[in-house]
Amino acid sequence: MSGEIPDDNTPTGDGATGPDGSQPVSDAHAIPVPGQRPAPDAGGSRPEVAFPPVLNGLDYLASVVEHLSGQPTARDLKYAVLHLQAGTEVLLKARLQQEHWTLVLQDLGKEIRKKGTARENFAQGEFISCGTAETLERLQDVVGLDLDTRHTAAVTKLGKTRNALQHYGLTQSAHAVEAQAATVLDFLLTFIHEHLLPHLAPAEQGQVETAMEDVRQHLGAITKLIDTRMNGLKETLAPHEDITVLCPDCGMRALVAGEPVSCRFCYRTWPDAASAASDYVYSEMLRRESLDPRDNEERLVHHCPSCDVPTIVDVDRRESTIYLCLGCGDTFDDLIWCKGGCGSLVDPKTCDIDYCSTCTDRLYARF
After folding, report:
1. Which residues face 102 on adjacent strands?
2. What is the DSSP-derived secondary structure letter of residue 48?
3. Beta carbons within 10 angstroms of residue 80's beta carbon
4. CB 245 within 8 A of CB 255
5. Given the DSSP bridges, would you call strands 2-4 and 171-173 parallel, antiparallel or unpaired?
6. Could you read off the pLDDT of 74-117 as tens digits, one per residue?
7. Among 19, 158, 187, 281, which residue is least crowded by beta carbons within 10 Å?
8. Rounded-to-integer distance, Cα 111 and Cα 350, Å
9. Residue 302, class by beta-carbon neighbours within 10 Å (0-12 exposed, 13-18 middle, 19+ buried)?
10. Are 64 and 178 in contact (CB under 8 A)?
């Protein structure tokens, strides 16, 4: 099913919780989490908020798998996305904090210039934390973690989905949300086990392990559902194997080229092939960690020699790369740049002079 799922790009840790309820993570050396209270007296007072950082992040993940269980409604999908993004930020920043609490700050210099000490302000939640992209960079460049590009791309895409949801609304199918969530959840469970657990006290390790097991069980059900659906699509996709690529929306290899361009897994259908090619290229740039501010989709999507529409993308196929037109579905083993310098690609098998049709017409027009 699909539903409108309306993200918040508001930095966490500036003294107020975001609309998703996320909290800045606490220091490994007795710095309290803003909003955290000691356990209530034995007199029976109302419960207090008391979530250490890693358990706080896992609580968000537990909420995610609960919202995706059974037949999720549009509201379930909405909160699954919001809570998954919140949990991801909390857990990634918890590892930064284990290294040193100042790594969580967006700008240490600005925090030092504020009234009071930076450490005191941090303890009170009076600070602005770094964003998700910078968090990933610091985990790799400062802490020295080796993170898989597929996982960092999934986290980056999740941030975009959350932003779209929070700021201008988003329509996405349950299948797409489940597939995206499964990839990020799988990464986070491994991240917790390998990079967070070893730095926790034994008592907290036990609590975290128990919470992780519950999330694992629910994730197993979601993953099984995804696998079952993909297995059911094998016969449908088999005739289109050469023109099937990864869907930019759900990440499953189920997007079939040809008008209309659509994903057989999540049912996303693009209004035109050029839009699909643009989304595909951006997704691939993230996955390959080749996103460069100087690049853009227009420069990396080329006109098809067959239909003359900007819908050609390069696709990895085992040990080689082929060119695929998402519009007409034609594939090319090798394309070369037009000698006319226009930036178009031409097929040397069908073009004797290595000029595109437009440049060829210009050449003949001179005579």
Report:
1. none
2. -
3. 24
4. yes
5. antiparallel
6. 899 999 999 999 999 999 999 999 999 999 999 888 888 888 88
7. 19
8. 63
9. buried
10. no
129: left (phi over 0), alpha (psi -120 to 50) or beta: beta
Contact 112, 118 (CB under 8 A): yes
Task: Quote the CA–CA distance of 241 and 280 in Å, as a whole number.
Answer: 17
Written as six digits, the tokens of 312 are 């050609």
- CA 213, CA 202: separation in Å to the nearest integer? 17
pLDDT value for 6: 37
Give the gyration radius of the chain's Cα atoms.
24
Contact 16, 129 (CB under 8 A): no
Residue 280 and residue 313: Cα distance in Å, rounded? 8
> To which H or E segment does residue 188 belong?
helix 174-191
Enter the tokens of residue 362. Answer: 């210009």
Return the ∠ at Cα 150 (arms to 145 and 155), rounded to 5°. 80
Task: Compute the Cα dihedral for 176, 222, 88, 253 and give only its sign.
Answer: negative
| Secondary structure element (H or E) that encloses residue 155, with its range | helix 149-168
At residue 44, the pLDDT reads: 58
pLDDT digit string, tens, across residues 43-80: 556 665 557 889 999 999 999 999 998 888 889 999 99
Predicted pLDDT at 142: 95
Helical ranges in 11-131 per DSSP H: 53-67, 74-99, 108-112, 118-123
Instruction: Read off the pLDDT band of 27 (50, 70, 90).
Output: very low
Average pLDDT of span 159-185: 86
Sign of CA dihedral 103, 104, 106, 109: negative
Q: Is 125 left (phi over 0), alpha (psi -120 to 50) or beta?
A: left
Q: Output phi, psi for 303, to 5 deg.
A: -70, 135
CA dihedral 76, 179, 60, 55 (to 10 degrees): 160
Query: Among 16-30, 127-141, 294-308, 340-354, which is the least confidently predicted range?
Result: 16-30
In sequence order, what are the beta bridge partners of 332?
A: 323
| Phi, psi at 258, each rounded to 5° | 110, 140
